[in-house]
Amino acid sequence: MALLEIRDVSRRFGDLLALDQVSLSIEAGEFFTLLGPSGCGKTTLLRLIAGFDEPDAGSLWLDGAPLAGIPPERRPVHTVFQSYALFPHMTVAQNVAFPLRMAGAMPDELRERVRATLAQVHLEDKDRAYPHELSGGQKQRVALARGLVGKPRVLLLDEPLGALDAKLRLEMQIELIRLQREVGVTFVFVTHAQVEALALSHRIAVMNAGRIEQVDEPDRLYTAPANRFVTDFIGTSNFMAAEVLPAGRSQDRDQLHLKLCGLGEILAPGMGIAAGTHGSFAIRPEHVRVIGPDHVPELRNHFSGRVRELLYRGDVTVYRIQLGDNGTEKTIEALMANSAPGRARFFEPGQTVQVCWRQDAGLFLHE
Ligand code: ATP
Fold first, then answer.
1. In a mutational test of the pocket of ligand 1, which residue from 16, 159, 196 has the highest number of ligand atoms less than 8 Å from its CB?
2. Of ligand 1's atoms, which has the minimum distance to the CA of residue 207?
3. pLDDT tens-digit series, residues 130-171
4. Which residue spans adopt a coiled-coil conformation according to this UniProt entry (predicted)?
5. Which residue is closest in CA terms to ligand 1's atom 20?
């Protein structure tokens, strides 16, 4: 049995169904992330696990025992908030010691646990400092130490990196991965930042409007999204209206033959979908290659187009390319890595180009 079981949990606020029959199993030692847009129900679910709120229907189980009716302080669960929630008049050591003191720990044990936990977050030399003397990243480490000091079974982290600037955020991501691996505590992490979720998690639950859309490992979510919402929410995709055509030549039978509305025919991964089915074809910008107009494309899926604009980002350049004729234009994005030193702009706005992609790239999504 999983460490934490969430079974058919619903939570309603007036007319709003904030959680709609959510079921999840979270394993011991997992770094598990709840990912979704603002208002999808992530914090509501976290509050139910912590015991700050109770579900209207369904049940939560920890280690095979129901959590219903157990108050937050008696659950082996701790929460780390984005705001840190440190006590300003207490030193770092006193802040970290607080949960143990509340639980009635003996002074020797308390001192030793605080010392060991501060060492885990690399703050052993800051034990006498006050919160106002610390940087944002250091305050976040104190909050993590306070969450871990009581050795919870589950540590809940509600957008803990949200208040940090981009560079520090990256550093703290690496810290969180290390820390979780070292302490082995199950982390349930909440974020709406998909890149962060992909970088940190063993598994991710993508949520939308109170429901779970998909639960998977990061690379599975990115390469095999279950539906349009997940495809759109994780990473970037170009979407094109498409219709399945009858299977073509026999060597193409293990592929889908698609007609892209206003553009032409392509081969795409997938099989067994009836001819005439309408939907959309999604392809990631990094899978679209841009080549010059006179280049003979070695890839079967190719169209000519014109560069509308480009966005230079340093490591990559994003090209927005208009495909199709008047009336059926379609703009798609192609992302090219600037991997050769010194070269960053291969094509200029207004230039005629071709785009192409491999026939195992992209995804057909039913309507
Ligand atoms: P964010 O990323 O913005 O924090 P979230 O995914 O955590 O969003 P929740 O905070 O769980 O979303 O909220 C889900 C929905 O439930 C929202 O529409 C929110 O307004 C509503 N909601 C949450 N708590 C309450 C409450 N106590 N009373 C009324 N509505 C609530």
1. 16
2. 6
3. 999 998 889 989 999 999 999 999 999 998 888 788 888 888
4. none
5. 39
